[in-house]
Every structure is written in C-alpha cells, then in structure tokens.
Amino acid sequence: MNIILLSGGSGKRLWPLSNDIRSKQFIKIFKTEDGSYGSMVQRVYHQIRKVDPGADVTIATSKAQVSSIHNQLGEQVGISVEPCRRDTFPAIALATAYLHYVRGISADEAVVVCPVDPYVDDSYFAAIKKLGQLAEEEQANLVLMGIEPTYPSEKYGYIIPESQSQVSFVSTFKEKPDLETAKIYLRQGALWNGGVFAYKLGYVLDKARALIGFTDYQDLFTRYDTLTKISFDYAVAEKEPRIQVMRYKGQWKDLGTWNTLTEAMGESIVGEAMMDDSCKNVHIVNELGVPVLAMGLTDVVISASPEGILVSDKEQSSYIKPLVDQIDQQIMFAEKSWGSFRVLDVEAESLTIKVTLNKGHSMNYHSHRCRDEVWTVISGHGQTVVDDVRQEVGPGDVIVMKAGCRHTVIAGTELKLIEVQLGREISVHDKQKSELL
Amino acid sequence: MNIILLSGGSGKRLWPLSNDIRSKQFIKIFKTEDGSYGSMVQRVYHQIRKVDPGADVTIATSKAQVSSIHNQLGEQVGISVEPCRRDTFPAIALATAYLHYVRGISADEAVVVCPVDPYVDDSYFAAIKKLGQLAEEEQANLVLMGIEPTYPSEKYGYIIPESQSQVSFVSTFKEKPDLETAKIYLRQGALWNGGVFAYKLGYVLDKARALIGFTDYQDLFTRYDTLTKISFDYAVAEKEPRIQVMRYKGQWKDLGTWNTLTEAMGESIVGEAMMDDSCKNVHIVNELGVPVLAMGLTDVVISASPEGILVSDKEQSSYIKPLVDQIDQQIMFAEKSWGSFRVLDVEAESLTIKVTLNKGHSMNYHSHRCRDEVWTVISGHGQTVVDDVRQEVGPGDVIVMKAGCRHTVIAGTELKLIEVQLGREISVHDKQKSELL
Questions:
Q1: For residue A115, which of A285, A313, A255 has the smallest C-alpha distance?
Q2: What is the pLDDT of residue B342?
Q3: pLDDT confidence of A361, banded at 50, 70, 90?
Q4: Using 50, 70 and 90 to split pLDDT, how confident is the model at B303?
Q5: Are B274 and A317 in contact (CB < 8 Å)?
Q6: What are phi and psi of B61, to 5 degrees?
Q7: Contact B292 A302 (CB under 8 A)
Q8: Choosing a second label site near B281 at 20 to 30 A (CA), which of A18, A148, A159, B302?
C-alpha cells in the first residue's frame, strides 16, 4: 500500500504545546506500549506499519517540519517537501509526482491520501488499505472514505452517497452545514468527509498536467511557488463524475482542540503534576521540570510548556485562537533534525539556551555577525570545529566563539551543552552557513 | 515608637510563591505608588515609617530570613536573629534584650510587638503607636490590641474584655473556638487576638530573667538553643493580672491563604498573563517569563513561580498544605543578601543557574570539593577572585573553576552571570568558605 500523509501547518489551537513552529502532530502526549509518550504522527505511522509492514509512507509537508519528522520517525521515511504552502491540490500533485518520478512507482498503482492527525484505531488503516484496493479496481477514478457520523456536526463537510451500501457512488458533496441542516443530512444518510481518498497515480498526474502543466517532479517543484492555491476537493473531487465512497464506522476523532485532545488521552496527567480528590474531569499536560498542582477544579485543562501556561475550561478552549494570536512570545523550544534546543534565559543583551544533539548528528557549520557565543559541554562527547580547527570535547569543556568565527559540534554520543549568546542584536536570522572542510 | 516585628517561619500555604526558604512575607504582590510591586514586609515597613518616620523597627527572625530582609528593606533595619526557632516567648525575650543591651534603649521605654504580615491600613499603625503610649502610662504591664470581629471566626483566639470601653482590662483569654462558641463570644463582646501587644522593656526582661535566667543579650543568644519552646501568650499574657486591651476596628486581614491573599490584591493579574471575558473572580500571579492564559474559569487562583504551578479553586486552596508537603522539589529560586539565583536547568551531572549580584556586593569566597564550575558573565562589570588572583570581568568573560579552587565575584555594577556546575554529586552542602586576602 502507498500512503501520502498530509502533515498540515502550524496551529495555535493547542497552545502552548503547538505554536508557529511546532505543529500539534508532533506533541508527545499518547502513552505507548513501552510506557513512553508518542506524538500523533508517531502513533499514525506505527499503526500503518502494524496493519501493513510493507506500506510505502510518504509525508507531504513544508520545509519547517522536515526536522521534526526525521527526529520522530527516523531518516527512512519518505518526505515530499513543499517549497511553500499552496493548499491541498498542489501538495497532493507534488507528492504524487514525487512517488512516480522520484520513487519510480508505476502510474497504475494506487495511493491513499490521508491527514496525519486523526485519532483512530487500527481498523481505520485496514479500511484505508481496502480503499487503495478499490482504486486499483478502477470502478471509479477516486474513492473516498465516508465516516459514519455520530452526531450532527457543524465542523465537517458531508458526502451524500447514492445508496446505503458499503461502497456506493457519490451523489453530491456538502459544505460544513449549520446544526439544522446537519440533522437533515444525517436523515439523508450523509457521511462525514474526513479528507481521505485513493486514486491511481496516473489519474492525479493527468489532472495536474491539465491544470498546471509540468514535465516531471523537478519541474513541478521548481515552479511550485507560482501555483495558485486551490484545494483538492474543489479542483478535483467535486468535479469528478466517476467517484465512489466507502463507509467507515470505527473510531475516528479529530484532535483539533484541547477539549477533543484530552478526550483521547489515556491518562489525566502527562508530566509532573498532582490533583486533589475534588478535581473532576481535569487533564494536565506539563512539559516543564517543575510540578503542577490542581485543586478543586472541574472540566479544566491545564497545559504548561516552555512557551507558556494555559488554564481553560474545556469547552471554552475551542475559542483559544484569537487570544493566542495576541501573545508575542519568542520561540522557547524547537526540535531540529540534529536534536533540539530550549531557551533557558532571556536578557537584553544575552540569551542562554540548552542544546541537545542526537548521537552522530551535528548542527550546520555556521557563524554569526553580531554575537559572541560560549559553549559549556554538560554531558556526552564529540568534536567541535572552530574556524576549521577540530577538538575533542566532553563534560566541562568550554569553547569561546567570537562573532564571525565559524563553528559546529559533531556529537559522538548524545551531547548536551549550554550556549550563552552575547550581543546587542541577537536574532535567529543572524546565521551564515559555511562549508565544513 | 519602638516596634518588634515578628517575622514568622517558612510556610507552604502560599506555594509555589512560598516554600521552605521563601516566606510569604517576602512575596512581591502588592502594587506600590510607583507602579512596582512590594512584599508584605515592605508594605508594613513603609506604613510604619509613614505613620512615624522616627520609629525604631527591629525584625525578630531566623538566620534564613536575614538575606531577604536586607535585600528588601536595606541594610539599616534592625534585626534580632534567632539562632534557632524556639516559639514566641524566647523570640520576644531575645529581641527585647537586643533592644536594651545592644541598642541601648532604656528599660523604661515601651515596645510594641506585632506580626510582620497583617494586611492593614495606616490607622492600624496609629493604633499601635497609641498602644505603646498606653504601655508607658503603666496602668497595666501589658496592653493588647483587640480586633473588632467581623464574623464568628474559628481561626483566631479571643480576648474577653471587662467592659466595652475603648481601653479595658482583660477578663479572660479564649482559645480558637468552634463556630457556635465563636457566636457566643461575639455576643459577649469578645475581640480577636491578633498577636499585637505593648510593654515596657523592663517588664519582659524581668519575666525572661525569672523564667530563663541570663545576664545579657549575648548570654541569652549563646544559650538560645537550650531554651524550651513556649509561646508568649502561655508564658506571660495569660498569667498577667494587670493586662489591658485596646479596641481596633480598622481594616485587618490575615493573608494566610491564597483565598485571603487574592482578596487583598489590587489587581487580578500580577506578571505576564491574559484572561478571557468569561473568567470571573480569577487571580493570576505569574513570576515566570512566559505568559499564562486563563479561559472560562470562575473563582480560581493561578500562581506560577520557578518552583511550580498552582491552579486552585479559591476556597479549596486553604487545604493546600498536605499536598505541597508531598512535593519534593529542589529550590529553584532564592534571594540572598548579595542578590539572587535561579536554577535554569537540572541534569544528572550538571546544574545551570543564573546568578544576579547587586551592585557593590559579592558572594562568600568559597570552594567546592566535588564540582567544577564555569561562569559566563552576561551583564555588568566587576572583579573575580580565583585562588587569590584578581581579574576585572565584563560581559562575555568566561571563568573556569576546577573543584577545590577558591572563588568569588565582586560586583562593581549589578552583575549577572550564568554558572554551569559540573560533577556527579552536586549539592548545596558542598561549600567550603575561605578568607579573602
């Protein structure tokens, strides 16, 4: 089975765990079998591997997420990198071209496209496999998954099938309705459109050539920023007469708000926290190294991260976005392909961060115009390179780098260091990459 | 007027702002006239100075609080340091001996003893001055302040006066009653015992000599740890026949819990925080450098400090103590006589802290057996001394100190540095003081 997972953009609705550079799909919040915590993307990836160990998974995403994906899923996973955001049709066309032209998958093979962040059980991926098989049988050009509604939701688009059979042709699509209209749809046997569908590669390549015009993957990639933003539903699905829908009635949750996310959590506390007996329906997610204590609360979510602290009534949490938009907080924590960093202290003319490099990884060889830096290695071993001079380093070693000096560290084991940045104009944009000799 | 302010021990009822080393009276939570925030002890001290600019204020406290008191009130304030905690009678005897033998105040002068942490208006200190005058008139050996009760509280002891006049002899003392008994006391015209009283120095010196036996302040100080723990009420007040009470009916609040403390806060937010329109009766005190966002809450207090985060229903917050007792959190922030430090990062074999030295101050000249340290100065100027070698330092300077090496820094201006401690057994107890040549 070929799968394209659409890994959406950053969002603030799960602030302080998600923000401009940290998407909700990377939050480690689900307890795994070995007792550690996994993210949505890790959960979905492992579920796919479990249902189909030979599945070919490609993640369609932006450049900003590549580090986090490699960090969470390893270097082997396929990634179709969108040079910029251009809505779902260009993204799916690019990923499809990647599968065909880069990965050499035949235009006759089917692929299933699905979002990276549904909260589902394994039966969902068995259904997805079936969806791919239906696409290869070619009774239709496009086969959608239709989720059996559990209530008249106003949050989803609807698919009206021609019949009530397991697989049926699609009668029509409906936009997100109001409550009364949603009730009417349910009486008509409508299904939720969860954005999951299968097609043969050739079908989308043909559509893309007709709408965009390109020769191969590289050509499409190069011209990507000139493409018009358009959704796959609008560009393709709603115009396709030969389109089927397959019903799915297993577990399916869209974990877009704190309210729905906490419903999916196996335990009420993740991280260091305590609540008294008078707390009812309280969830705490604490990424900080100090304890959270909750007392006498009902229907409340508490979430603390290096970016900030949310305390919200669960229902009220769905109105978070405009409030978080008002917060102008610098990035305090980020995952990188080589590890992660966390801001420890901010002063007018200094910034102190903790850098963790994964074993065998290194940051880019780079320099800064406007700041000096001091590294103190606190654990692990590796090699620093400063203006082309290599040096073995371990705990307690101090490296002083003046502005303009090129530097990197290569981690032999996992390596942690405290970096003190000093200067009047400290900015993430002050970074010049160099070639490491 | 002479005043002894009793500065009580550490307490956890206002966690995470108070803890084993940070007492509630030092929390900066009250907006002052210049827009900055002051603590309970600062508020009370300035109120006394306002009512009586010439007042002689002595704070009776433990060694652990001396740094915070100097830091918040300056070096001029008188402090009677208890070598260990021995309840109120020994503490008051020691402070009284300090006033007489060290400060040379006549045994014929009166002194007023009061707790350091009541939330009161200025009329309270006018009443205290009057209390001292009554003591000097010598109609009684001891003159108490009796607070007019506003409700039948179970939290306070009661004083039953002989009459309803402004100043009256005391009929009897009553322990903290249950609700029904409290109602009966109120009908009898009883007053709350707020622990405020005045006497002539000679009176308590005589009592202390009779009960303890000592020659002078130094003798009492030296033998302090051998004294029996006993309260002033039990040892003196309840046995004294010549005792008066003066009524006080101005503002008086005991800020012992988050519920009462938030009632006294002028504003609902201290620190970086935001709440939506649906929040009702919510207070936020945030000492962290990242924002708190509150949504849809009612009657809740949120408090965040380097030690942890509390989210509590206000009424429920009075039951905090046993919960906080379960938390085994290392000290993350402390005020010292020379400035303050804050823990930034904790690892198995390293600890990173930020040290702020006040202008003109320095830490003790000291060494560590089991850890190396690295300082990176991030702001200010001063002088380091490392194994007797002096060096001028400023931003960007790095000092590496191996275990065993003696070191200090003397701040010429306010000076901040990042200290990385490295070793297998990092402990606050691993500190050997040396003499600075």
A1: A255
A2: 94
A3: very high
A4: very high
A5: no
A6: -160, 180
A7: no
A8: A18
Exposure of B71 in the CB half-sphere (CA atoms within 13 A): 24
Confidence of residue A242 (pLDDT cuts 50, 70, 90): very high
Left if phi > 0, otherwise alpha if psi is -120 to 50, otherwise beta: which for A326? alpha
Q: Residue B151 contacts by C-beta under 8 Å, 6 or more apart in sequence?
A: none
Question: What's the pTM?
Answer: 0.85
User: Does A319 contact B349 at a Cβ distance shorter than 8 Å?
Assistant: no
What is the spatial distance between Cα B407 and Cα B367, in angstroms, rounded to a whole number?
A: 6
Chain B positions in Cβ-Cβ contact with residue A280 (cut-off 8 Å): none
pLDDT in tens, B359-380: 999 999 999 999 999 999 999 9
Q: A33-37, A236-240, B15-19, B172-176: which has the minimum mean pLDDT? A: A33-37
Length of chain A: 437
Residues of A with Cβ-Cβ distance to B330 under 8 angstroms: none
Structure confidence by residue, pLDDT tens digits, B80-107: 999 988 889 999 999 999 999 999 999 9
What is the length of chain B?
Answer: 437
Distance from CA of B408 to the nearest CA of A (A): 19
d(CA A170, CA A188): 13
**Residue A207 C-alpha, separation from nearest chain B C-alpha, in angstroms:** 46
Cβ A361 vs Cβ A74: under 8 Å:
no
Which tokens is A66 given?
């590549």
- A95 vs A81: CA distance, rounded Å: 8
Q: What is the residue type of B279?
A: C
Residues from chain A contacting residue B312 (CB–CB below 8 Å): 293-297
* B319 contacts: CB under 8 Å, gap ≥ 6: A276, A295
Place of tokens 């030969």: A242
Question: Tokens 């102190």 appear where?
Answer: A352
Query: Residues 334-363, chain B: which have Cβ within 8 Å of A?
Result: 344-350, 352, 354
* Average pLDDT, rounded, for chain B: 92
What distance in Å separates the CA atoms of residue B316 and residue B434, rounded to the nearest whole number? Answer: 48
**DSSP-based three-state secondary structure for B274:** strand
Per residue in A8-29, pLDDT tens? 766 788 999 987 778 888 888 8
Tell me, yes or no, if B310 comes closer than 8 A to chain A by beta carbon. yes
Element (H, E) at A379: strand A372-379
Rounded Cα distance between B2 and A420, Å, is 50
Among A5, A4, A63, A62, residue whose Cα is nearest residue A39: A5
Q: Is B311 on the interface with A (CB under 8 A)?
A: yes
- pLDDT per residue over A327-350, tens digit each? 987 889 888 878 889 999 999 999
Per-residue pLDDT band for B334 (boundaries 50, 70, 90) equals: confident
Residue A252 has pLDDT above 80, yes or no: yes
Which two three-digit tokens encode residue A251? 């577990």
Average pLDDT for B423-435: 91
Closest to A419 in 3D by CA, of A354, A358, A341, A369: A354
How many whole angstroms separate alpha carbon B401 and alpha carbon B374?
Answer: 6
Look up residue B167 and give its amino acid. V
Q: 184-213 in B: which are within 8 Å (CB) of A?
A: none
**Both structure tokens of B99:** 């006033």
Kindly identify which residue of chain A lies nearest to residue B380, measuring between CA atoms. A349
Strands A283-286, A300-305: pairing kind: parallel
Q: CA A59 to CA A42: how far, in whole Å? A: 12
Q: Searching chain A, which residue's CA lies closest to the CA of residue B352?
A: A418
For residues B311 and B296, give the distance between their C-alpha atoms in angstroms, rounded to a whole number.
13
Q: Give Cα A154 distance to the centre of its chain.
A: 24
pLDDT at A437 over 80: no
B74, pLDDT greater than 80: yes
- Long-range pairs, A173-181, Cβ under 8 A, ≥24: A173/A233, A173/A237, A173/A238, A178/A154, A179/A152, A179/A154
